[in-house]
What we know:
The structure holds two protein chains of two kinds. By secondary structure, chain A is of the alpha+beta class.
Amino acid sequence: xxxxxxxxxxxxxxxxxxxxxxxxxxxxxxxxxxxxxxxxxxxxxxxxxxxxxxxxxxxxxxxxxxxxxxxxxxxxxxxxxxxxxxxxxxxxxxxxxxxxxxxxxxxxxxxxxxxxxxxxxxxxxxxxxxxxxxxxxxxxxxxxxxxxxxxxxxxxxxxxxxxxxxxxxxxxxxxxxxxxxxxxxxxxxxxxxxxxxxxxxxxxxxxxxxxxxxxxxxxxxxxxxxxxxxxxxxxxxxxxxxxxxxxxxxxxxxxxxxxxxxxxxxxxxxxxxxxxxxxxxxxxxxxxxxxxxxxxxxxxxxxxxxxxxxxxxxxxxxxxxxx
Amino acid sequence: xxxxxxxxxxxxxxxxxxxxxxxxxxxxxxxxxxxxxxxxxxxxxxxxxxxxxxxxxxxxxxxxxxxxxxxxxxxxxxxxxxxxxxxxxxxxxxxxxxxxxxxxxxxxxxxxxxxxxxxxxxxxxxxxxxxxxxxxxxxxxxxxxxxxxxxxxxxxxxxxxxxxxxxxxxxxxxxxxxxxxxxxxxxxxxxxxxxxxxxxxxxxxxxxxxxxxxxxxxxxxxxxxxxxxxxxxxxxxxxxxxxxxxxxxxxxxxxxxxxxxxxxxxxxxxxxxxxxxxxxxxxxxxxxxxxxxxxxxxxxxxxxxxxxxxxxxxxxxxxxxxxxxxxxxxxxxxxxxxxxxxxxxxxxxxxxxxxxxxxxxxxxxxxxxxxxxxxxxxxxxxxxxxxxxxxxxxxxxxxxxxxxxxxxxxxxxxxxxxxxxxxxxxxxxxxxxxxxxxxxxxxxxxxxxxxxxxxxxxxxxxxxxxxxxxxxxxxxxxxxxxxxxxxxxxxxxxxxxxxxxxxxxxxxxxxxxxxxxxxxxxxxxxxxxxxxxx
Lengths: 323, 534
């Protein structure tokens, strides 16, 4: 009788089937499965086929490869991540891992963005590679470059659909990386006028001094409401913004500030205290030295009797005497 | 002494006392204390003249003398006292506001003559006042004496130190230089004089004109035949007391500017109460209770006790910190923080100069760095809300003007510039000193310009003086109006205009000197108060 060679076909040798089984297993154990577990489940599959299946799943991005103390773990990727990643994958099917790495780093930087040199440090890739990859990513509209307001030559990179953070764009005072000094000036004057009128009305009221003084104060919340109602700002201004404007008024010497303890819950209080502002007058009139031309003279140090510039032939003095 | 101070002293001495005194004075200021022969030798003037010049300077308290070891008397000039001569008009004006014309003239006489006896002062002032009164009226000595006593009681004039009476009958060898002593309680003791008399009207032919050199030794009154009852008791103006008054004025006006009139009146009352009790260099006045203040308020102010208490609380809480609360007895004990007040005034002066010279944005940056003490370039831009380029420009301008200085904090031991923090900071004391030096030079410039203007128009001035003299003599001898007219027309109209301009310019320059002197006073008081605390 002839020998019948029976080739035993291992069942479930279909690679797709293998992958599906592995995926099912991963779903069963969301924390990850080791190679051993897969082996136990499908003892009939050879190690090589297993490896091929796992590699395919990894490259498709459906599995995560992790290392634990015991060995390698395979974990199903989260469905949340799966969304944009699959979208990203659909674009990046052919890209190499370096681009993936760079993209990962940029993603981690969130909405603050990251500088190209920092990307280089984190990924240990040479500069030329980085530049090529960045150009690539930009052209695919995955990332964008935002000019930082701190150093105008620096460009930070962040994901395309993210809003840049305030520290990068400068917040309400910057529009397109330009400091809006006129806007700040206008706000400055408006706040000062508001406080001045408040102090005037308080002075006119002629009541006892305590009430007079207390009514001449305005809290930062009041000023904020007034400015919002004025509507001179196209951008939404927060209370901190108004406080920075009021601080510049303090540095101008026109306004003074006190902090009082306020109950939590009163309008405008932050952490149990409130800032109150009041318009004040300077304590001395312009001092005597600046009333003489010598006080403001730009060539003061060159002036001496008998020289090219001297008190006898000083043109500033002549002009001043003719007043 | 800096060059600027020496220049200013030389100008002042020349204007008030003449060439020779100026030469000796400046030499002494430059070289410190020197004996008589060395001065004569170094300046090349005769011994006689040096002696006379020194007499003038000592009489006016500008030079002091000391016996050194080896029996040599050395003379030393006091530069700061010479600079006080700028402030004479302010002293006289203060006396006028406080004690009216009589007080004004008393202080003026004392300042112009250095030291005088009381009887001499009284007589002279009475004579001068009688001149200005209507015909038939004269000034009584008693009134002048009263004002003098009041001035002494409030310490505006004080006695000069004198030679103590020796106890032993045997005089022994005369000391090389008299040692002058004065005790604290005798300083304001007015001798019991009965000065009876009235002011004499000066006849036009009599008496010396104002141009005569100031009395070098008023010890003997040439007009007086009787022995002077208070011979040997000399009085001088107490400049420290005037300075205290100016300081009080500055504080009161600062409070009035910041708060209102009533608060400034309260502060004035507090300062007046501590006039005598607190030494002028103390950082705080004595604590005053609210009840005392209420009792001492001026009569016209009828505010109730509660309102006063409210005002005092407001003053104590104000960020200016001029008034502080030191206790609760007697309705609340309050002190005036003098050192802090002077500091605030000096800081305000600095800010005002920065504002006028560089602009209000620079002033903003200056105040910002003052408040925050140390700031980096970037932080300055952020806080002040000024674009980066402009902020940098302004900081550098102030840096080269020495208002702001840089503090380096290295990160690495090799102080590499790229790895160092540079912080901007304001050092008020050194900025005040720098500004003070600039003030001295400015006043010297103003005086020089004034002298130049006068010299330019010397010919015109002489001509106008001659014409006036002619007119006066013709009026005395009784001339007709037509003749007077003719003489007056000798000065043409453009010349008259020129004279007018000259007068206006000289007045303006004079006024400006006094204004710069106000700045000098604030800065000097602050520097002195800070040095005393260290």
